[in-house]
Design goal:
The protein is of the alpha/beta class. The chain folds into two domains: 10-198 and 382-405, Rossmann fold (3-Layer(aba) Sandwich); 214-376, Rossmann fold, CATH 3.40.50.2000. 44% of the residues lie in helices and 17% in strands. The chain has 16 helices and 15 strands. The protein has an eight-stranded mixed beta sheet with strand order 10-9-8-11-12-15-14-13, with helices on both faces. A hairpin with a 2-residue loop joins β14 (336-338) and β15. α1 crosses α16 (383-405) and α9 crosses α14 (349-361). The chain starts with 9 loop residues before the first strand and ends with a helix. 45% of the residues are buried.
């Protein structure tokens, strides 16, 4: 995929790293990065081979965030998030330079979007999770169903996000799930652009599994948002002989309640470095991601590259990846079967039970899906592809802007 003939000059505004550094690195290669405004120091952006001359660093807000975590813990830090992001956002809006287009990250881009609009500069907004109102609804309802107290997203944060959606010329989203959440809220589909993230798969490849344990792998935080309770419930209900559930990821305050009593078949490894993930994936039989709200799970692609069939909820971005191989079957409960795995209805632990039992009872089927997963993961999933698709979308936004001003 090639960038447009007239290459747009883009300023990225991001409070943190996210996937913005990967995008910036690729835009440099295309000659399209005007600058990136971030709260990370240049010592970090150099790791992505982003030239110092292209980086505007505002590290004071990063230091404030770390201080807030140390001073008051996660909940208190989250309450300060709007104020800290606001400091970054206001300062960033004065440092945009003279680009053709500003690409801002949601929650900290309103001043930059407004400043760009006032100067006739095109704008796009990155929203990697569900529409803010849908995200809040999903989490509020799930926490209530579990009898847990959800720390409501501050109203100021919600209202800023909603204003950003309306100001931006286009909203960029990573998956069908996120796109549908916007459409469900009445957002115009013409103002959405869907582009799945890239991923570096150079370290992830199939390997030999050294035992006969039917091992289910999960990677991510052990949280309500990730739906870990639905997976644990399904694993226990499936009750597959010689099986194991391996949970990789950091604990949350609610983790113990979500997972329940300790038992030998459920292994909690905690957070592990990325370098150790390939070996863990290769020890598995299948990878499961039961998230309730997750814009695009990169761990799904990593696991598939290691030859693991996928069981993904409809709220993960897994459908986008698996659907490229074509649907095989749709069951009565709404589970969609694909060559490399399954997409199950979000929050339906019984659907996960059925898939686990089917795969564990059919070694030939499991082997077929392992092969399909590793093959599917070798499509072009690079950050170069992602950036090139963004460049096409930037050009479309600019063309529409020129048309409107005639």
């Amino acid at each position: 995929m090639r960038p447009p003939f007239a290459i747009p000059q883009v300023t990225i505004v991001v409070p943190g790293r996210w996937h913005a550094f990967d995008l910036a690195r690729e835009l440099v290669q295309f000659g399209a990065l005007h600058r990136i405004v971030t709260n990370y120091p240049r010592s970090r952006t150099r790791r992505w081979n982003i030239p110092d001359a292209k980086v505007v660093s505002l590290p004071f807000t990063l230091m404030l965030t770390k201080f807030a975590w140390k001073l008051g813990g996660e909940k208190w830090a989250m309450r300060q998030n709007f104020r800290i992001n606001d400091l970054f956002a206001r300062r960033a809006s004065r440092l945009l330079g003279s680009p053709d287009l500003v690409h801002g990250w949601s929650g900290a881009s309103e001043p930059s979007l407004l400043a760009a609009k006032a100067r006739g500069i095109a704008t796009v907004l990155e929203r990697s999770s569900a529409h803010m109102l849908e995200q809040c609804r999903i989490l509020r309802e799930e926490y209530a169903a579990l009898g847990l107290l959800w720390e409501e997203t501050p109203r100021a944060t919600v209202e800023r996000e909603l204003r950003e959606y309306e100001i931006a010329d286009r909203v960029f989203v990573p998956s069908l799930f996120v796109e549908r959440s916007f459409l469900d809220r009445g957002f115009s589909g013409e103002r959405l652009f869907r582009n799945g993230f890239g991923v570096d798969l150079s370290r992830f490849a199939p390997g030999k599994k050294n035992d006969d344990v039917f091992r289910v792998i999960y990677a991510g935080s052990l949280s309500v948002r990730k739906g870990i309770h639905h997976l644990v419930r399904a694993f226990r209900e499936a009750n597959i002989p010689n099986s194991e559930l391996m949970l990789v990821g950091g604990n949350m305050p609610e983790s113990d309640q979500l997972i329940g009593p300790a038992e030998p078949r459920i292994c909690r490894l905690g957070h592990v470095p990325q370098s150790e993930l390939p070996a863990i994936y290769r020890s598995g039989s299948v990878f499961a991601m039961p998230s309730l709200e997750d814009g695009y799970g990169l761990v799904l692609l990593q696991a598939a590259a290691c030859g693991l069939p996928l069981i993904a909820s409809a709220s993960t971005g897994g459908e986008d990846f698996l659907a490229s191989s074509g649907a095989i079957n749709v069951s009565n409960d709404g589970t969609k079967e694909f060559a490399a795995g399954y997409v199950v209805p979000t929050g339906n632990s019984l659907a996960i039970v059925d898939v686990l039992r089917e795969l564990s009872a059919a070694p030939a089927l499991l082997a077929e899906k392992r092969m399909a997963a590793s093959t599917l993961a070798h499509r072009d999933l690079s950050w170069r592809r992602y950036a090139a698709a963004n460049l096409d979308a930037y050009s479309a936004v600019l063309a529409a802007q020129r048309k409107d001003t005639r």
